[in-house]
Amino acid sequence: MMEFENIYKTYWNRIFRLCMGFVNDYDIAQDLAQETFIIVWQKLNTFRNESGIGTWIFRIASNNCLRQIEKEKRFLKSELPLHITEEKQYSIEPQIQFLYKCIAELPETERIIISLELEDVKQAEIAKIVGLSEANVRVKIHRIKDKLTQKFQDHGK
Amino acid sequence: MENNIDFKDLWKKQSISQPSINELLAKLKHFKKTSLRRLILTNAMLIATCVLILLIWYYYQPQFLSTKIGIVLNVAIMAIYLLVYNRLFDAYKELDNTDSNAEYLQKLIAIKTKQKFLQSKMLSIYFVVLGLGTCLYMYEYASMMSFLWGFFVYAVLLFWMGFVWFYLRPRQIVKENSKIDTLIDTFQRINNQLEADV
C-alpha cells in the first residue's frame, strides 16, 4: 500500500499529461489517469522487475488510452453537449493549449510516442512501451516534431 | 533543436490537479461493484428461466419423453449461452494491460473478432435449439387439447419463432456486428500506424 502511494505521487503528473495529450480534454484525461492507477493498483503484485516500473506504468496508461476509443464510440452522443460548455480553461497559456491540441490531433500511436518523448522517457523505453524498434521510434519522433513545428509555424507563432 | 526544448517546456507547464488517494480508492470500489452488478443482472434472467422450467418438471411430472427432452434442451442451451457470454467477459481479463501497445492492439482485435463470431453464431444456435426444445416440450400439453386448439397453439408458437428468426435475429446481429466492425476497423487502423513506414 505504501508502495502504491509512492507510485501514485511520483507518476500522477506524468500519466495525466500523457492522457491529456491523447484526448485534450481535462475531465476525460483525469478519468483516464485514475483508471490507469486503478489498474496499477490491481496489478502491482504481478509486477516483476523485468522492465522498469516507469515502462510498466506507461504501458498500462497508453493501452488504457487506446482502449478508451471503445468507450468514446459508446458514449459519444451523451458526451457531446458537455463539450459546448468548454468554458473551463485549465491552462491559461494559449501556447500550452495549442500544443496539447496539436498532439491530440495526431494519429493515436504518434500521440503516445510524442507524449513519452516530451516526458523524457528514453527512446529505448518508448520502443518497449509501444512495441516498435528503437530506430523506428527515432524516425517517428523526428517526423512528429517536424509536424508539430509546422503546425506552430502555421499558427503564426 | 530550439523547438525541441520549447515543446518539452510547454508540455510540462500543463496545469494538473492530483486527486487524493482516498478519492481514487473510492472510485476503485465503485468500479468493482458496477462490473459485478452487470454480470449478475445478465445471468439472473437466464438462471430464473432455468429454475422456472425445472420447477415445472418437478411439480407437473411430465409423462412424455419429448417433454423431458424439450426441457433438457432448453435448460442446456441457456446454460451454454450463459457460459459463452461469461467467457466473453473473461476474454477481456486475458487482455494484458502491461503488454506493449502493438501486442495489446493485436489482442484487442483478436478478441473483438472472436466476439463478433460468437455473437452471431451463438445467437442463431440459441434460437434454433430453444425453438426445437419448446416445440418438443409443448407436445405433451398440446396432445391433451382438442386437435383445433393444439393446432392453434403450435401455429402461434411457430409464428412467433418465425418472427424472432426472420425479423428480430437478423436485426440484432446487424446491430451488434456494426458496432464491433467499427471498433475492429479503428483498432486495425491504429495497428497499421505501427506497421507503416520505415
Automatic annotation (TrEMBL), chain A:
Transcription recorded as keyword: yes
A GO BP annotation: DNA-templated transcription initiation
Ranges of residues in domain RNA polymerase sigma factor 70 region 4 type: 99-148
Boundaries of every RNA polymerase sigma-70 region domain copy: 8-74
Entry-linked InterPro entries: RNA_pol_sigma-70-like, RNA_pol_sigma-70_dom, RNA_pol_sigma70_ECF_CS, RNA_pol_sigma70_r2, RNA_pol_sigma70_r4_t2, RNA_pol_sigma_r2, RNA_pol_sigma_r3/r4-like, WH-like_DNA-bd_sf
Keywords assigned: DNA-binding, Sigma factor, Transcription, Transcription regulation
Domain of life: Bacteria
Keyword DNA-binding belongs to the record: yes
PANTHER family attached to this UniProt entry: RNA POLYMERASE ECF-TYPE SIGMA FACTO, RNA POLYMERASE SIGMA FACTOR HI_1459-RELATED
Similarity comment text for this entry: Belongs to the sigma-70 factor family. ECF subfamily.
Name of the molecule in the record: RNA polymerase sigma factor
Organism name: Flavobacterium limicola
Source organism phylogeny: Bacteria, Pseudomonadati, Bacteroidota, Flavobacteriia, Flavobacteriales
Automatic annotation (TrEMBL), chain B:
TM segment ranges: 39-59, 65-84, 122-139, 145-168
Protein name per Swiss-Prot or TrEMBL: Uncharacterized protein
UniProt source species: Flavobacterium limicola
Key words of the record: Membrane, Transmembrane, Transmembrane helix
